[in-house]
Amino acid sequence: MTIPTLYPDAIRGSHFYGDRYEGDLMTPNVLALHTTEGTDIVSYSNGAEAPNLTAKPNMKTKKGFTVYQHFLLNRSARALVNAPGGVETNTCNVVQLELIGTCDPAHKKTWGKLKADVDYIYWPDAPEWAYDALAELIAWMHLNLGIPLSGPDEWLPYPTSYGATKARMTFTEWNAFKGICGHEHAPENYHGDPGDIPFAGILAKAKAIVAKILGKGGSGGGTSTKPKPKPTPPAFPGRDKFGPGKTNKYVKQLGDRVVAKGYGRFYRVGPSESWGNADRNAVRAFQLDHAELRGDADGLPGPATWKLLFS
User: Fold this and answer.
1) Are residues 156 and 305 in the same domain?
2) Statement to judge: residues 88 and 27 lie in one domain
3) CA–CA separation, 58 vs 116, rounded Å?
4) Is 219 contained in some domain?
5) Is residue 196 domain-shared with residue 262, that is, in the same domain?
6) How far apart are CA 165 and CA 156, in angstroms?
């Protein structure tokens, strides 16, 4: 299937390293969870050790993540140890996610006191809203990338998760694995993050989100409904509706759609019915992220761009 290469509303800017390290093309089937062992976003050695995404819990609102994107979701990242001639850990169809916070119980009560405005998550014993946010991200990965909602039964507590443990996969197991795992499970690696997170509970939350989105489940004897059919894309209104000086409902409809597809960073306020540079830049970024559109990435929508945006 055609997959999105950007996580919705993820921040790129100076934190995006895909132009410096292109990475191998991949079809993701694994999500690897890391913890940063810090309290904020870092440069990851200027991208040399970066994951695809970093999720920063919104401690003030106690709801959701602020997500930073470092590599496209169809490109390999660099946050795993990847020995030359080894099992190809980074390039084995793995989307890598760093969770800002710690899995080390030694830091559970010390971080957050370093500065008055600094707080953190201790992921093995996180507040429920943080697990809800992680479950929402996992559900999105399943629905949009096809990553299975399954994973290892054993998530060891740090520091016993460090090194060659019974939870660490063999090369054969790693190459066959599809689903969600931790840094502590990857071969050739010794890190023990994210520790003994309550994986089964987080996974159950993600499955419930997916079921709700697909219209399944409900009360009673386990009955379910069929997934809702995908809506038919609206008819392309014509090229003459877009460009400098154009003001109409289709410009707003286009803007709302590129924001929904993850390109909202180009708008300071939000889409309107009047065409502007933000609309053109957002559409051009969408075109550049889709191989079939790159040959005409002028920022003006044609029938092919419109169809992909509304698919």
Assistant:
1) no
2) yes
3) 16
4) no
5) no
6) 9
For residue 70, count CB atoms less than 10 angstroms from its CB and return exposed for 0-12, middle for 13-18, buried for 19 or more.
buried
The pLDDT of residue 224 is 41
**Which stretches of the chain drop beneath a pLDDT of 70?**
1, 83-88, 90-91, 111-118, 216-231
pLDDT at 82: 74
In a domain, residue 57? The reply is yes
Which two structure tokens, joined as six digits, stand for 269? 């306020």
Q: Are 57 and 171 part of one and the same domain?
A: yes
Question: Can you state the angle between helices 277-288 and 249-258, rounded to 10 degrees?
Answer: 50
Distances (CA, A) of 30 to 54, 185, 233: 16, 12, 30
In this structure, is residue 161 part of a structural domain?
yes
Instruction: Give residue 223's pLDDT.
Output: 38
| Distance from C-alpha of 171 to C-alpha of 186, rounded to nearest angstrom | 9
Tell me, yes or no, if the pTM score tops 0.85: no
208 and 246 in a single domain? The answer is: no
Q: Name the domain count of the chain.
A: 2
Q: Are residues 300 and 196 in the same domain?
A: no
Domain extent for 300: 239-309
CATH number for the domain spanning 262: value is 1.10.101.10
Question: What DSSP string describes the chain?
Answer: ----SS-TT-B-GGG--TTT----B----EEEEEE-SBSS---TTTTTT--SEEEEE-TTTTSSEEEEE-S-TTB--S-S---TTS--STTTTEEEEEESBB--GGGTTTTTSSSTT----BGGG--HHHHHHHHHHHHHHHHHH---S---S--PPTTTTSSS-TTSPPHHHHHH--EEEEGGG-TT----TT-S--HHHHHHHHHHHHHHHTT---SSSS---PPPPPPPPPPP--GGGSSTT-BSHHHHHHHHHHIIIIIGGG-SS---SB--HHHHHHHHHHHHTSGGGGGG-SS---HHHHHHHT-
- For residues 152 and 188, membership in a common domain is answered with yes
